[in-house]
User: Fold these one by one.
Assistant:
Number 1:
Amino acid sequence: MATPESPYGTSAPVVAGGKPVRVHHLAAAKKDGTKLVMLTAYDAVTAQILDAAGTDLLLVGDSIGNVMLGHDSTLPVELDEMVVATRSVARATKRALVVADLPFGTYEAGPEQALASAVRLMKAGANAVKLEGGSPRAASVRVLTQAGIPVVGHLGFTPQSVNMLGGFRVQGRGEAADVLLADAQALAEAGAIALVLEMVPEPLAARVTESLTIPTIGIGAGARCDGQVLVWTDMAGMTDWSPRFAHQFGQIGEALRQAAVDYGAAVREESFPSEKHWFSS
């Protein structure tokens, strides 16, 4: 049930009854008009909570670099770090479809490198991998798909290309809209199972969504995508700042800070631990 101060209610997940979300469920959701719910996760504790909440897809994003590892971009993230995070999330997940990012430098050389990197993530427990870029990535998507590895594409603002894009800027304006649409179609034709659209104009996201048979998942791309994804720390209010396209559905950061303050006070005033917390013999 929605909280009194929240305008958001509840709705049924893509797959009810605790059954695992599979690739074919994504296509069925698009056909039925059921919105897909995706959140990032980087560890077992968070993944278990988000999975139990009915989240359809958990993205082990290379955003772990910004969110958890203290980097100012996703570029420094290593494949070994993604393997550890993917394994942690997969072990804790019973229902959601786990998608793992291929980090920068692990697939750009071509299909052979992409396949080797994707295999490592799949062995770690991923159900699919995600890569950034348009038509130049179609060959890699095709090879991975033929190898039995589901692929999610990512267009619009692609964080791994932040230096070429001139910073965190909306993509697909003007003549670039037709290029993005062509890229989306190329990825779909190559076998991608879904497509993330990040920071693209809402009309363009709607146009791409209508043109594809595979679902689109938006982040800063408006409401007409087939689903939405957010970084979980933005969604849960873990920090004072969050992107314009995010909504804080909780204030977990403040709750955690207050819990730490209360713990510290209890230790210093010697009210914790009390007799109920220790062993007498």
Number 2:
Amino acid sequence: MMKKVMVALLATVLGGVAALAQEQHYVGGDISMLTKYEEAGVAYKDKDGKTVGNVLAFFKQEGLNAMRVRLFVDPSKDSDKGVCQDLDYVKKLGKRIKDAGLSLMLDFHYSDTWADPSKQWTPDAWKNLSDEALAAKIYEYTKDCLQQMKAAGATPDLIQTGNEISYGMLWGTEAKANDGKTNRCFTNSSSANWSRFYTLLKQAGNACREECPQAKIILHSERVPKANVLTDFYDRMRDNDVDYDVIGLSYYPAYHGSITTLETAIKLLENKAYGKDIMVVETGYSYAWALAGTTFDYTATYPYSEEGQRRFTADLVAMLQSHESVTGLFWWWPEDNGTKNVTPAWWNAALYDHNTGKPYAAFYELKAFAPAVNAISTAKVSYVSRDSYWYNLQGMRLDSKPQRRGLYITDGKKVFVK
């Protein structure tokens, strides 16, 4: 009897270890336009040119395990073809993602249009609300969206409460420029501005915790090259008890600089000891032409070519793997295939060849960030380690015994750190 109990216990532990190991890293992309491409008759292919019947199943087969989808309040207010993701659209795409066995990241924009550091405009339907009423509305809206997502079979695993919110959110309407300026949150902005922002984030976070308690909440900044802004933001979140789990970063070399610049930012965040995971929730590099508004030329290292894009991706993955804190990597708009009746212009950093419909080589580099965990069921698991080096599952040596929960390798054994 005791032997059976021990076997059952070991099986339970190993099953839990396998699940944790698989959840340790998320890798995928923001595929918010996939439905529109499919409706336009786009045929996605594999590297051999064979049409893929179920592109989401293909993504999973090729080693990706998570997808991100943006959500606007009322995208009908915007004429940009990329702004079309209302709740009904997102529920359907989200269910397909979950049905394919992929994790889902839901990206609330809390706007009728693109939300980024220069545009955080309040939805038209909310524009006349007082700050108090707006705080209640963001809670109600977030809660309702999550309830509907769950009912649709599209429960998110990761939730961004705002998109690139380094300088605040829900500033007011674009037509009322003074409102926007009044509500922005710069490092030297008034405490009232920041207090308003914290309240909005806390209300959104409360709704997430109530409806999706297992989901990880992400606070998203793109200030990778600006260390003072980046750390000021997350210092304030810590000091004002804003509840979240993941530091989300945007990193585009064209606008943010070299991979070394990103690593410097990651090290800075690690040294601050916020106790949060770090994810690159948006990245991309061109395969042919410079992106509009490019401010950093990386072509001496990574030419604008399929091979240059591949090498960039491989080097980015290798750098991220060396940081235990980094648990996510998402390519932005990988599914774009240049169909101009769907989007107004080509996104020159897609992972699909606009001419052949086949994935670029960089597509196949991404999966290295979250390699499949093999033979976990036969691994010896120990809760005691000797004095020896520690390694993560990607084979990268760590500086010391890890403090984060997860599966590691030391003294020739897989060890689960609780």
Number 3:
Amino acid sequence: MPLGEHLRELRNRLVKSLLAIVVTTVIAAFFYKDIIQFFTDPILEAVGCNYSFAELAENTENTECARIVQNGLLSPFTLALTVSLSSGVVLATPVWLYQLWAFVAPGLHRHEKKYGLAFVGAGFPLFLTGAYFAYWSLPKMATVMLEFSIIGSDNQLPLDDLLQLIMRMIIVFGLSFELPLLLVMLNFGGVLSGKKMAGWWRGMIMGITLFAAIATPSTDPISMLALAGPIWIMYFMATGIALANDRRRARREAEGPADDEASELDLTPEEVGGVETVSASRALPEQASAERVNGYDDVT
């Protein structure tokens, strides 16, 4: 395609993706309260309270609790828009991912399409798995954080700040679970070998642990292990896949190129001293005719 056709194709793909996001955003707007409750109910069940300040001061056994509040006249409206748009983008993920793939796929070879589909198919479930671990660890994290509250105080949680924290945790956990997939992609691309990945295991365990400790706002080990533990396991799984791929690649190179593959050129320079040179008449290709077209023969 010429450049203009590529730009028109990109425009059409973007328009279809935006239309899908708009439609899913409108649908999510009717259920935005249910979406908010889905994310906040586990936290409220863990740390929520229905006591007044006087009752809370008298009942010291339930001091670590919190209420969700909204500040400002426009806060409910802006929060509804934010939640609806975010949900629309997530719900429209299959559509805009397909549009992105449809735009890129025609320029890929058959094996590149196969690897691309495999990585996309594995990447989305990995992200959902990380998001689930974040959703599971948030109530425990909230309980630990509220243990630092002053006795008798009423901890109020602004709803927009709470949702931002939840979304940040989900995104961090989801992207963290993509690390093993990235390592496998680098190995299949010939950038990183499985032997190097196996040799990095001590540093990777320490790095993953430090990242989990920084990424989780709470100080409890449960939230940290909920993020670090699965990544440790998937790192060693990615190392095993990379080692198996390296062995497969070594066997294929030993067998030589396939019938439909071009062999590598030997570009090593050779000395010409003491070697019989080829005459100019033999070095040049044979002329099809002695006629010249516009002053040029076949060679030029």
